[in-house]
Amino acid sequence: MARVILPQHLRTLARVNGEVTLSIAGPVTVDSVLDTLEGQYPMLRGTIRDHTTKRRRPFIRFFACEQDVSHEPTDTPLPTAVASGAEPLLIVGAMAGG
Asked: pTM for the whole thing?
């Protein structure tokens, strides 16, 4: 069971409180987490990654075990602590401005 923490606006859209727990078959990667998340919460399709290219949306970041994995290949296995559910995968809306 993998745990995912969504930013507030996506929790509101998905109508969930707190973190989401997902059962993922096979290797736990960013791709498999997002595939499962979008399957369970179809209203999130296109909010975290592009519908067609499956590329991460600008200003969205992924953190696993306090490490930014946003620029890693999305088929790279996540750390064991995330795959086992001991640590969550954080999906964070980045801030920009000046």
From this structure: 0.92
Instruction: Give buried/exposed letters for 64-83 (b at 16+ CB in 10 A, else e).
Output: beeeebbeeebeeebeeebb
Reading the chain (98 residues) residue by residue, the pLDDT tens digits are: 999 999 999 999 999 999 999 999 899 999 999 999 999 999 999 999 998 999 999 999 999 999 999 999 999 999 999 999 999 999 998 777 66
- CATH of the domain spanning 2-93, picked from 2.40.10.120, 3.10.20.30, 3.20.10.10, 3.40.50.720: 3.10.20.30
Name 81's Cβ contacts closer than 8 Å, sequence gap at least 6: 64, 65, 87
CA-to-CA distance for 34 and 27, rounded, in angstroms?
13
Amino acid residing at 76: T
